[in-house]
Task: inverse folding
């Protein structure tokens, strides 16, 4: 982030589609990575990335601080993914079915497929905090804003998520 | 979302614990995380980003950004309404404290029945019957009033 990005945000908020397009190009890969980690399906993640960016464009006026664009986008993506994962608002900590049909794309390798299965066995909360902190590099404070949880709770959840993922990957 | 030059914060100096102030007790480096980040990068590399952007651009051109979210406006409205209700309640309470309502002035005075007349109609008739023929003089009245009828 930087002044340049803040300037782009302000231009986009004034209705400049080109400025928003540049912002989208900056963040789309990160959003996709976050979403594919959450929903463990590349096609769904691609569609959710599109949807996240469309919603961001529609609601850009609601973004008060341009410096928080990345966390704001992640919050939109998270909400969309959650809606997709729990359509009937069931248990928020429910795991995905690890035997879900594989993504329509061919997995890159067995290793990636194994990670996909391990991720699917994590709870939604564990996946979320792991991806936001360890993969996307957001701070505890930003993740607390996104998830509405205290930083203390996030820290313990992060520890659990790492341990859980490690156990799953090491399991025979 | 991430630093463009790399994928995992666990290996990036700018993402170290010291960059965020107090030391973070959690180790940021672990192989599963690096593997995960690498796998997500590989997944991202399968996306046709030019096609993605072309589709996004087409979709963006067909929608107009909204103004301030109606939810934000509604939230402001609710807060204003709540403040109004509180203000009205405060004024009502203050007024009640300053001017006690009629009920607060104590129980209404009981309606006390007038004492029954000491002279009943039958007594008057008896008195009239005793009047001397020439009319009542003062001495007679005195004697009658003091004496029980």
Result:
């Amino acid at each position: 982030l930087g002044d340049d990005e803040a300037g782009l945000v302000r231009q986009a908020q004034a209705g400049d589609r080109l400025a928003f397009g540049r912002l989208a190009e900056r963040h789309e890969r990160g959003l996709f990575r976050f979403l594919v980690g959450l929903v463990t399906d590349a096609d769904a993640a691609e569609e959710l990335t599109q949807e996240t960016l469309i919603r961001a464009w529609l609601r850009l006026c609601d973004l008060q601080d341009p410096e928080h664009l990345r966390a704001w986008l992640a919050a939109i993506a998270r909400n969309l993914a959650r809606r997709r994962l729990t359509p009937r608002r069931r248990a928020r900590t429910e795991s995905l079915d690890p035997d879900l049909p594989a993504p329509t794309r061919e997995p890159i390798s067995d290793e990636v497929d194994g990670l996909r299965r391990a991720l699917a066995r994590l709870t939604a909360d564990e996946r979320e905090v792991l991806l936001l902190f360890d993969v996307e590099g957001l701070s505890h404070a930003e993740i607390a804003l996104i998830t509405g949880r205290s930083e203390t709770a996030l820290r313990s959840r992060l520890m659990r998520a790492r341990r859980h993922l490690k156990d799953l990957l090491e399991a025979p | 979302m991430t630093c463009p030059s790399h994928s995992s914060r666990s290996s990036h100096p700018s993402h170290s614990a010291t960059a965020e102030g107090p030391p973070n007790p959690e180790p940021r480096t672990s192989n599963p995380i690096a593997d995960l980040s690498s796998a997500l990068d590989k997944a991202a590399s399968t996306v046709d980003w030019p096609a993605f952007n072309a589709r996004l651009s087409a979709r963006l051109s067909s929608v107009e950004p909204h103004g301030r979210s109606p939810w934000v406006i509604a939230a402001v409205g609710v807060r204003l309404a709540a403040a109004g209700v509180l203000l009205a309640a405060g004024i009502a309470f203050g007024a009640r404290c300053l001017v006690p309502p009629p009920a607060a002035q104590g129980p209404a005075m009981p309606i006390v029945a007038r004492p029954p007349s000491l002279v009943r109609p039958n007594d008057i008739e008896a008195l009239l019957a005793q009047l001397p023929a020439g009319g009542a003089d003062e001495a007679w009245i005195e004697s009658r009033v003091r004496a029980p009828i």
Observations:
- Chain A touches chain B through 56 residues (CB under 8 Å).
